[in-house]
Every structure is written in C-alpha cells, then in structure tokens.
Amino acid sequence: MADPVSTRDLTKQFRRQTAVDGVDLAVPAGAVYGFLGPNGSGKTTTIRMLLGLISPTRGEISMLGMPMPERSGEALRRIGALVEGPAFHPYLSGRANLARLDAADRHSDRHTAASRIDAALDRVGLLAAAGKRYRAYSLGMRQRLAIANALLMPRDLLILDEPTNGLDPQGTREVRHLIGDLASDGATVVVSSHLLAEVEQMCSHVGVMFEGRLVSQGSLAELQAGTTKTVRVDTDRPEDAARVLRELGLTDVASLDGYATGTLGKVEVTKIVPNLVDDLVPVLGFTVRSPSLEDVFVSLTGEGFDVSG
Amino acid sequence: MSAVELLGTATPNLPSRPSPRFLFSELGIIFGRRRNLAGLAVLAVVPIVLAIAVKVSSPGSGGGPDFVSAITGNGLFVAFAALAVELPIFLPLAVSVIAGDSVAGEANIGTLRYLLTIPAGRTRLLLTKYAAILLFALVAVLVVAVVGTVMGLSLFGGGPMTLLSGSQTSMADGILRLALACLYITVQLGALGAIGLFVSTLTEQPIGATVAVVLINVMMFVLDSISQLDWLHPWLLTHWWTAFGDVLRDPIATDDLGRGLLTAAVYAGVFWLAAWARFSSKDITS
C-alpha cells in the first residue's frame, strides 16, 4: 500500500523566495507524523500544497495513493484538514458554520448532517456552545470548531496544522487524546507543531523542516538513535568519577558540583557502574539520558527554535 | 458515534450530482446578512417614495419621464418608473456588493481554504457563487417591481393600461410585460455580476472588489453619455439597459432588447471564463 502522504522533489518558489525546496515526504499508513520546524520554515506552504490550495513549482504529490492535483477531488474528501488556524463566518453559530461546510461537500448526506455535526461538536467538547455565534468564541473554542470540521466525515487522513494553538493545558491534553484515538481507529495523522515536547508525546514519526528543506525524517526512535546518549553519575567525588569515565572511553567528560557527565559513544552502559565501584567511587545516582527531541532538533538545524528569514 | 468508526463503510463512490444544498447554503448566507437585507430595504423604499410623491403632487404638473407621468393613469407604471430610477446606480450597486464579496469575502475571512479542502471544487464553487449572484439580482429586481406594483395599485388603481405606442392593453398583459422587463434587467445585472465575480477572484478585499465593479459600471454610463464616442456605445453593457422600456411598445420592440441580451450574454460569458481561468489555477494563500 502506498504511503498516505508521499511527495517527491516538492518545491515552491514565490517571486524571489524558495519557500519549499526539494521535499520528499513519506508518511507511513497509521503513523502520527509530527511535522516540525521553526516559523517560516515552509511547513504551512507544504501543507497547502498537499491539500491542493497552492500548486507546486516542481515535484510530485501523492495523497492516499492518488496523484495531486489530478485526483484531488477524490483524495480530499477522505482527508480532514485544519490549515493555518480556524476561519469561519463570524456571524454564524458554530453549528451553522459546520452545516455550511457540510453543505459544500457534494458527497455528504444531508439526512445525516445534523447527527454528524453534533457528533463532531461533541467529540471536541463544543456541543454546549454550538449555538453561540462564532465571533463570541474564544481562540480555544475556534480551534476546537476547526478540528470538528475535520471530523465531519469519516477520514482516512487528517492534516492538522498547529491543532493545539490557543488551547489551555486541559484542551491540549484532550486534543492529544483525540489524535491518539483517531490513530488507533486506523487514520493516519499529520500534525504540524512547534511544540517539541508535545510532538514527542504523541507522534510515532517526525519530519523536520528547516529553511524550506526537510532536514530529517523517520520514526521517533530512529531519529533519536542517530544522536548519542549521555550518562550522569551523582557522587560526592565527581573528579574521580570523571577520571573513570575518561578511562572507559567516554567523551566530553565534565566534573561538576556533585556529579560528573559524559557522552556514552560506543561504551557499554553496563560496564560503567562496576568500574566506578571498583575504584571506590561512591555512586549516589546513575542516569542514562536519551536526547530530547529538542536536542535532536538543535543538532539538525544548528540552532534553536527561531524564525528563519 | 465516532467519525472514524465509520471508516469501514466510508467513502462510497456516490455519483457527483450537482446538489442544490450548497446553493441554498450560499443563499442563506447572502439573505441572512443584515447588511444585504438593509440594501434590499433601500431598494424597496424608492418605489414607495416615488408613488407617494406623485400622489401628493398636483395632477397634470407633468413634464417628467414617460413612466412617471403615466403613473396616475395606471398604478403598474410605478414599478416601471422605479426600475428606471434604480437601474443606473441602486440595482448595480446591490449586485456589485454581492458579486464583489463572493470570492474575495471568503478569502478575506479565510473560509475559502476550508471550502476548497472540503473539497467544494473550484469550478463548482464559482458556479454556485454565480448562481447565487443571479438569484440575488432577480430578488433585488423583484423587490422593486413587486413593491412598486403594490404601491401603485393601492394608490392609483389598475385597469386597462395605455402603452407607450398609445394602444390599450389589459392589466394581465401589463403584468406579463412587467415580468419580461424584470427578467431583462436581471440578465443585464447578471452580466455585471460576472464582471464582479471575476474582480472578486483577483483580490482578498471584498470592499475593493465592490468599489471596482461600481466604478466599471459608472464608467460605462459615462462613456455612453459622451456623444463623440458613439462608435463605442453599442459595445457597452449599460448602453442597452434602458431598452427594457421597449416591452411597453405594441408590438414589443425586440431589436434593442435582442441586442441587449446578446451583449449581456457575451459579457457574462467572457468574464465568467476569465474568473474561472483565474480562480482554477490561483494559489490560495489566504
């Protein structure tokens, strides 16, 4: 089966700027794919191309195995999307806005519209406020309404651009659970985000955009395996501990107040503590730390999470 | 019920029949907006004012346009006179607001991207938007005609109608002729609506699109009034608008009406295709 999202050499040039440059996305079926990158790195432009809103300058797109934009009508109705924040008619209620979008879908059944709309509103916890005008909604409620729109019809693929933007911690947790539910029901989910910790908690795969290029892509485990682990020894004799670590072949060893650290490299973890004990270094604590997604990200892009120009 | 629970039975290949549902939803938005209802109310005020003004002024003080002086003879002429008064500015302005808002309004608030990812389909969206513009134009014209007829008949009465050529005809025939005039004007406004639809695909500012269409409309009237440019006049959409009065001749003078319908059809076709060419390949970045 073809990947639900697959692009080859996807490129978009605006007048002077290359917004997206030779991107080869591969989102496997059933994945929760975290699409990461600083603001301005080309995430949203890529998503707009995937959804047929803007046409690529170069390259190919296949969505759910169908070439875009040739078969976009067929593909898009199996895709639920949240693109660059919510946008609705301000003077219509949340429910009326969803009814409007449902009416625009030539494949939706008008007889089931009311129940589908209420089910979607219920799923994002907005049923109680469904009759309120959109303009009276808070940012979090607007965001929920946009997610409800993506759930109006059964979808095989969900593309959610910054779904937790503007949500409170409770709402963020709910959305994370919702995404987990959707994925376990068999849908593939692409979530763009700039919140690395959040992506780390819910994604199985990650793609990192930087200055228009896809600098890394793979399962979360693969991505983290590419970087090295660090160990930390808590002790009241950090200098001696550092010496032992150096003798074992660890690099970047440092002794600080109350602990020593080093980069593991190819050294076997199991050898470290016995060696320390043999040298009579008191081991008060020992931890091996995998790099966080943020560390991975910094190592890939060489910088923090700033806006790229 | 979860949306995804239905995945197994989902996405049957329904035939892509054109559904009136999208159009109804579009009309619901147009006629649900207070601004648009206020506009229609303004259109309705003109025949009321006109009828009352003629009623209170002394009879025989004439000298006004054909229709206005004929009002005292048959109330149905209020509708014709109101249409003539509203044709240069009020009716085109109303259509320009709706047409200018059609695509640019959705782009402006961002709903366009959601409509397209539904997917509503770009051609289908334009067709639906244009159908809604045409229906709005028809409603606007009918508001003027119906209010004019009701006001006229209640203030001046009905009965046999004296046509512009001097012959008399029945009340029923008069109403039929009024209906023909309404259809003719709707077609003309529909052509202006196609210009508006095209302009609306060029911008994300609905007000800008509306102003542009109003300017185009006024410009055509201005050009039509410069006698040195008489070679250009037959090519101007608005040049044929006043020909709707020809339905009141006996027999109906079809020359100008036919030419007017042809001109409107060409304008509508050209600008609709221009809108389609523009919109079907446009990058939606709003």
What are the defining features of this structure?
heterodimer, A: 309 residues, alpha/beta, Rossmann fold, Alpha-Beta Plaits, 6-stranded mixed beta sheet, elongated, B: 286 residues, mainly alpha, two-stranded antiparallel sheet, 1% strand, globular
Outline:
The complex is a heterodimer of chains A (309) and B (286). Chain A has 309 residues and is an alpha/beta fold.
Number of strands of chain B: 2
Q: What is the H/E order of chain B?
A: HHHHHHHEEHHH
Number of helices of chain B: 10
> How many separate domains of chain A?
2
Question: How would a crystallographer describe the biggest sheet of chain A?
Answer: 6 strands, mixed
**Any idea what the radius of gyration of chain B is?**
22 Å
Q: Based on the structure, what is the oligomeric state of the protein chains?
A: heterodimer
Q: Tell me the Rg of chain A in angstroms.
A: 24 Å
Which pair of protein chains has the largest interface, and what are the residue counts?
A-B, 49 and 40 residues
Structural class of chain A: alpha/beta
Which spans of chain A have pLDDT < 50 for at least 5 consecutive residues?
Answer: none
How does the helix and strand content of chain B classify structurally? Answer: mainly alpha
Mean pLDDT of chain A: 88
The termini of chain B sit apart by 33 Å
Number of E-state strands of chain A: 15
Please list the strands of the largest sheet of chain B in the order they lie side by side: 1-2
When the domains of chain B are counted, the total is 1
Rounded to the nearest angstrom, the distance between the terminal CA atoms of chain A is 38 Å
